[in-house]
Design goal:
With 130 residues, the protein is mainly alpha-helical. The chain is globular. It comes from Niallia circulans (Bacillus circulans).
């Protein structure tokens, strides 16, 4: 059972877009609400995109930049809190965290797409000696 669970989690880390789609389809079937399903799938798959970006960096460059990834996430959080405070004059934690998590999704989704394309080109060029 542990091996199966480990394999499923590994698959979702390797392919977070499929994780997003599966969660979206499952939630859409249960709730029948499109917007809620999209938001729920975004929230869950963000963690998989963050982990996936880390492992893509490790596989492309051979070194872990997890501390830098965590630092970027921390700076995004600080920026969102300051921005929310400047605009609203008070911090509503639920809105701040939601904005923080959605910006992380956008950042790591774009980073995932870029690193996948870069990794594919890099390994093809490496195989052909270019």
């Amino acid at each position: 059972m542990f091996q199966f669970t480990s394999a499923v989690i590994s698959f979702f880390v390797a392919f977070p877009i499929i994780c997003y789609l599966l969660i979206f389809i499952l939630c859409k079937q249960i709730t029948k609400k499109h917007r809620l399903s999209v938001n729920f799938a975004l929230d869950i798959s963000t963690l998989f995109f963050i982990i996936s970006v880390h492992f893509l960096i490790v596989s492309i460059w051979g070194k872990s930049l997890l501390s830098y990834i965590l630092l970027v996430i921390l700076f995004i959080g600080v920026f969102i809190v300051i921005l929310h405070w400047k605009i609203k004059q008070e911090i509503v934690y639920r809105k701040v965290f939601r904005g923080f998590w959605r910006i992380n999704f956008l950042l790591f989704f774009c980073a995932y797409l870029f690193l996948m394309a870069y990794g594919l080109v890099y390994y093809v060029m490496k195989q052909f000696g270019i």
